[in-house]
Design brief:
Distance between the termini of chain B: 32 Å
Low-confidence stretches of chain A: none
Radius of gyration of chain B: 13 Å
Order of helices and strands of chain A: EEEEEEEEEEE
Number of strands of chain A: 11
Oligomer: heterodimer
Amino acid sequence: RKEVEQDPGPFNVPEGATVAFNCTYSNSASQSFFWYRQDCRKEPKLLMSVYSSGNEDGRFTAQLNRASQYISLLIRDSKLSDSATYLCVVNIPEDNNNDMRFGAGTRLTVKP
Amino acid sequence: ETGVTQSPTHLIKTRGQQVTLRCSSQSGHNTVSWYQQALGQGPQFIFQYYREEENGRGNFPPRFSGLQFPNYSSELNVNALELDDSALYLCASSMRGQGAEEQYFGPGTRLTVT
């Protein structure tokens, strides 16, 4: 099983739609979770950290389900500018290290 | 902008050559991580440097090595380049010891090996 798995998509949605992405992780000891967005040929940019209680930032909501070992990202009222690849990131705690593992990304295209 | 810089932006090398990529971390950050991203894939963790020592390594051979300097900047060295080393190389800086350790990426170096 991969350490971090995402549905690669692509997700093609109309403007204004609500879209949700899931990401599963294999290490039950993982404690830190993030969502990044990456535009074509650009570096990943931090979108939001994911907290145990769930968190919201405007149109974006992130949730963590420790029992099932997955995190989710919900985007409401999609905008054209939301078109990007969304990367899930999970820490892999080993010894005193805190390595991060990225999923392969989910591609979103928002259409007019 | 994140304040993380990388050089060079683009690089073309020949198989068998060696390359050094550079990264300056964000002010106040003490940890640098390096990633390799092939086209259409997520970033793959190479290694992390903290306090000038390697502090975690992904599944990469020893010909991938690095350094971190007292000012927290870092270098990634790749020896005996192979065609499959062609990728975007990203560095990310973070502050160890501050909770969830959010990482901030530089713009990357695009390496082409011919």
